[in-house]
Amino acid sequence: MNSCLPFASSFRPPSLLSHRLFNGSVITSRTSFCVSRLRSSSRSRSIISFQHVEMASSASQPSKSVTTGDAIGASDVLQMIQSYQAEAARLPPIEEVRTILDGSVRGILSTHSQDHDGYPSGSMVDFAFDNDGFPLLAISSLAVHSKNLLANPRCSLLVAKDPEDCTDIVITLLGDAVVVSENDREAVRSAYLRRHPNAFWVDFGDFCFFQINPKFVRYVTGVATASLGSGEFTIEEYKAVKVDPIYQFSVPITSLMNKVHAEDTKAIVQHYTSIKVDSAYMLDVDSLGFNVKACYQGYNFKLRIPFPKRAHIRKDAKTNIMEMLEAAKATV
């Protein structure tokens, strides 16, 4: 059977943040805010949010800069961000959901408690994904959630893109967990160890693999704010999309930019948003652009910065960034 080790040491769930009103926008006590526009499938609604860099049109739109004075007030900044983010090209919602999940390794598994009838039981678990985007779990038969799944396979897996930011996208897969057959065990084991190379315990006698067969995939943004957005997809829609090919290079690209070229990132953000941010920390990269966490006069917020053109390979992302930097420097 199968269960999961206590992985809670390095994972911290989103903290509960108090909020205050700032020029018509909800600002957390950590002074963070974001602006974005959500264009989802027919299952979700279109909103304007000052809380989270969400997902919008998949159409590749050229980046642009806006000419404004350097001295601008906070309310003007919010309006500029809103205007810029409304046109920022992003992955389609379902593609971003699939991509974020593929790049994640830890979440909260909720099962039906056998000890407390009718109540859910949550456990922190590590996971991997198969080629269809179905979660793979390595669980000990001694674990409570292993026993729960064997008695009732219906479960959910919750994954937060940014566990430190409760307003960022949170994804939930709802489905049925099944024990991986002996014939499929080696393939599943290999897939799991590719994501968790140090998980030597998967070969212990009390461990086995579960696969969650999703029925529905949901996402929500703007949790704990007035700017709530959500969407739901069927498993057919989920399986039909591919993982973004550039997102997998986020770590090496952002590490280099943040460690060596932080000023260049700031210059690009300043040029294309016309906001004289004090800093800009690159978070992740995909085919259509990148996301940053910027700071302006003590306020932290997330921004979407679209590429001039779609990146098909890693080199294209580098070329886009270099071209954007050249454009930024040309206006200094």
UniProtKB/TrEMBL annotation:
Q: Which InterPro entries match?
A: DUF2470, Haem_oxidase_HugZ-like_sf, Pyridox_Oxase_N, Split_barrel_FMN-bd
Cited PANTHER family: CREG1 PROTEIN, OS07G0573800 PROTEIN
Domain named DUF2470 is located at 252-324
Please give the SUPFAM superfamilies that the UniProt record associates with this protein: FMN-binding split barrel
Report the GO terms under cellular component. Answer: cytoplasm
Q: Which organism is it from?
A: Vanilla planifolia (Vanilla)
Name the chain's protein. DUF2470 domain-containing protein
Using the record's annotation, list all stretches that form the Pyridoxamine 5'-phosphate oxidase N-terminal domain: 95-220
